[in-house]
Amino acid sequence: MNKLKPRGENAATAVDVTDLILNDIQTGVLAPGSWLKQIDLERRYQCTRPEVRRALDRLAQRRLVEHVPNRGYHVFEPDGRQAAEISEIRVLLETGVADKVVANASSLDIQALRSLASRFDRMILEGTPIQLYEANLTFHHRLLSLCGNEELVNLVTEIRQRTSSAPVAQWKTRARIEQSSREHHEMIDAIAAGDAAALRDAITRHIRQN
Amino acid sequence: MNKLKPRGENAATAVDVTDLILNDIQTGVLAPGSWLKQIDLERRYQCTRPEVRRALDRLAQRRLVEHVPNRGYHVFEPDGRQAAEISEIRVLLETGVADKVVANASSLDIQALRSLASRFDRMILEGTPIQLYEANLTFHHRLLSLCGNEELVNLVTEIRQRTSSAPVAQWKTRARIEQSSREHHEMIDAIAAGDAAALRDAITRHIRQN
DNA sequence: TTATCATAAATTGGCGCCAATTTTAGTACC
DNA sequence: GGTACTAAAATTGGCGCCAATTTATGATAA
């Protein structure tokens, strides 16, 4: 008598609809401001109505979509003020642990960071915008993890999602992308040199001008 | 033909079950680690099953309760590491805007803060632990609001809820409470003196030793 | 021709039932 | 007397239906 669902289903089926919708918002498939009709989502993600509703409620809690009673949910578009304020929060958190990052970084970590930064560079040329976006996330996640504060890493990951509705489109020009790339390497150099002040400076510029 | 529900019901009925449960967790009525049975909540708050479930899901998203599939939800108890990490995050955010707070504070704001700090002092003697807790929240909220970053205020309010499961019980001794009181006045003095460094120092000590 | 109102279609959101899983209690067996 | 197995009770969680509200459509009158 073999149990088909051992305990948490297989890993592939385990992904929640919330993440699917979230992903489509991040990649810009679901445009900022657009209305998310429950029937459409139901069909698009091949799931039931209650699942859609739970996902929408969760995303509304995380302020990625906005709920208007009896009207439905639409993709949230942060105004300039909110975006600026969130950027400032990121600056505070990420520069605040710069010294910890520098202190904890082993030569192996630095090597890994260089590899991830290079991967970002490669994606500028060869990858899709989504791959570029993900390479960027991976780099920043790896760097921030060095601070040793797991909760902080989670928090930054969460609020980064709120920064721009369609983060894929955040790099408007090619020049801006390449500037980002340079800043990545600049951060690594600062870490390698043990220069926390330089790291803080690079991080601040990097976040503020996105 | 009078409409009994004008647009969003009357303000009293509008409070969500989520807030009710949250409040009972904060005040320690629902003890850390205890299981939240849906039937009990349903009866306790006079609401329907789906309402209970939505509330539990929201609280689980905010990591105030933990969800174990097919077992239910229980009040989350943060371990020492998590509590310490969250405190560090608060230190970074609240000290990070100390200069802004000092810069923006008018004499009227300072007056208001003194009033709120006094209210806290009064609650030590005359109030219930819950009133004391709320007076403390009000004071900190008012102070932090001076930074001008609305998103940051919201964020701190949110993560403060995650710090301790039963925040009412956070002040273990009378001595600790009175120390908190002194630190409140210390913060105000620093603001009045325009001394951002002193404010940062007071905030750091205040958060770390809770 | 355009504005307004009524009717119809579509969408949201609340509620209850039932299946799946877990826990508890009881019983038989070692 | 203790342990393992079985059956029943309790709890969780998924799903579909229907009422309430909103939006779209069309008709009528100015």
The CATH superfamily label of the largest domain in chain A reads GntR ligand-binding domain-like
Helix fraction bin of chain A: 55-70%
Order of helices and strands of chain A: HEHHEEHHHHHHH
Total domains of chain A: 2
**Cα-to-Cα separation, first versus last residue of chain A:** 56 Å
Secondary-structure-derived class of chain A: mainly alpha
Radius of gyration of chain A: 19 Å
The fraction of residues in strands of chain A falls at: under 5%
Tell me, rounded to a whole number, the average pLDDT of chain A: 89
Give the overall form of chain A. elongated
Please tally the helical runs of chain A, counting DSSP H or I stretches of 4 or more residues.
10
- The CATH class of the largest domain in chain A is Mainly Alpha
Oligomerization state: homodimer
What kind of sheet is the major sheet of chain A?
3 strands, antiparallel
Any overview of this molecule?
Two copies of one chain form a homodimer. The termini of chain A are far apart. In chain A, a hairpin with a 3-residue loop joins strand 2 (65-68) and strand 3 (72-75). Chain A has a three-stranded antiparallel beta sheet with strand order 1-3-2. Helices cover 66% and strands 5% of the residues of chain A. Chain A has ten helices and three strands, in the order αβααββααααααα. The radius of gyration of chain A is 19 Å and the shape is elongated. The first copy, chain A, has 210 residues and is mainly α. The first copy, chain A, has two domains: 11-75, Arc Repressor Mutant, subunit A (Orthogonal Bundle), CATH 1.10.10.10; 80-208, GntR ligand-binding domain-like (Four Helix Bundle (Hemerythrin (Met), subunit A)), CATH 1.20.120. Chain A has helices at 17-26, 38-44, 49-61, 80-96, 98-104, 107-126, 129-145, 150-163, 174-193, 196-208, and strands at 35-36, 65-68, 72-75. The interface between A and B is medium-sized, with 23 and 23 residues. Chain A binds a DNA duplex (30 and 30 nucleotides) through residues 37-39, 48-51, 53, 69-72. Chains A, B: It comes from Sinorhizobium kostiense. Chains A, B: InterPro entries: GntR_C, TF_FadR/GntR_C, Tscrpt_reg_HTH_GntR, WH-like_DNA-bd_sf, WH_DNA-bd_sf. Chains A, B: It holds the Pfam family GntR.
